[in-house]
Structure formats: structure tokens, C-alpha cells
Amino acid sequence: LAKTTQPISMDSYEGQEVNITCSHNNIATNDYITWYQQFPSQGPRFIIQGYKTKVTNEVASLFIPADRKSSTLSLPRVSLSDTAVYYCLVGDHGTNTGNQFYFGTGTSLTVIP
Amino acid sequence: DAGVIQSPRHEVTEMGQEVTLRCKPISGHDYLFWYRQTMMRGLELLIYFNNNVPIDDSGMPEDRFSAKMPNASFSTLKIQPSEPRDSAVYFCASSRTAGTGILSYEQYFGPGTRLTVT
Q1: Which phi and psi angles does B85 have, rounded to 5°?
Q2: Which of A101, A103, A105 should we substitute to test contact with B (largest number of B Cβ atoms within 10 Å)?
Q3: pLDDT by residue (tens digit) across A18-69?
Q4: Three-state SS for B96?
């Protein structure tokens, strides 16, 4: 099981770029990296997913180094509405095991005015 | 689409009572997941189904918990008897297949059921 390690919490001012790093030293060859966002009193929401190098969508970018032992979620110019908990998941979705859905406690991001 | 629907949104019950949580997944999704979230343990997967068949229930904490999916549009999570330590938010999520035997990475979560057992 490729467990993940994230900082428990982070603070950032509005308008800044925020980078949240996730460590996954035991990532397997077939594992993908997925990030979710959870607002208070809501269920998690898919943000982005990648395998290697860089992935970008309208919400965030995901940077994955060559060794894939870590990944960084980058949120450009955060606003107060980006205050949420961010989860990093690692797993091979080609296997039928629940081990790939390990959310853990995530990183609580607070955006300050 | 209405998204994943869960009921009730809030449930308060006394210890020893039976609790049934309900979920309607997004139409066309063939995977359904039940999660539990607490401050201490975070978000934990309890069980998930593929085409109404339970695939992995290793996260179910004990025999007091059971889950069923009688058809593609309905699932229940039952706790009998309930205990105060079962107090948590229970989420249902659904997902579709991305390819043969491959689960999509994108799960859609419901609003959750906040369960309080006194």
C-alpha cells in the first residue's frame, strides 16, 4: 500500500500561489496520483490526477518528479473560497482493492484575507 | 443530473438502535462507495460495490455494519446495534468505469449523513 504523507495544515494570503506536497515513497509502477478537495460540510471533490511530469487543468497544476516519490499540488492565486482540506491519493485503479482509496486526514488550507 | 443523493442528512439515535443510511448513485455509474469521516481518523473507505456486487469490505469496522446494493440505483448502510463511537459523517460516492476492469479516478460524493449516537 502506497501510503501518503501530507502536512496537516497550511496558511496562505489571498492572491498567493500555494503548493501542497505529498510524499508517497512506496508508489508502485502502475499507481496514479489523485487529488481531492473538501469544503466544510461537503463531500470531497476531484481536482486533478496524473502519472508523471506535469498536469494542468482550469483549477490546479500537479507536478510529479521523475522518481514519483512525491507530488505537488499547485493552486495559483488562491482566494478565500479555496479554504478547504486537500487530499492526496495514490493507487492503481486497475486492481479491485480498497487500498487505493486511502484519503487519510489531508492538508487543511486556510486562506487569509 | 442530481448528483449522488443521500438520506437522511442528519440522524440522531440512541445507543442500541438500528440505523439505516441510504444512497442513490449517479445514473450510469457502476461503482458505489461508502466512507466514514471523523476528526480522529479522517476519511475511511468502508466498502465498495461494482455492478451491485461488493468488491472490498475490508474497511467495515465490525459485524454491526452491513451494506447492500439491491439494484444499480440504491444502496444501504446499516448499523445494528449502533454505538456512540459510530458517530461520524457517512459519505456515499459513485464512479464509472474508465475502461475494462479499470475504475475511473473521479468519484462523485454525496452530501453525507451526519450520524449522532447518544
Answers
A1: -70, -5
A2: A101
A3: 999 999 998 988 888 999 999 998 999 999 999 998 999 999 999 999 999 9
A4: coil
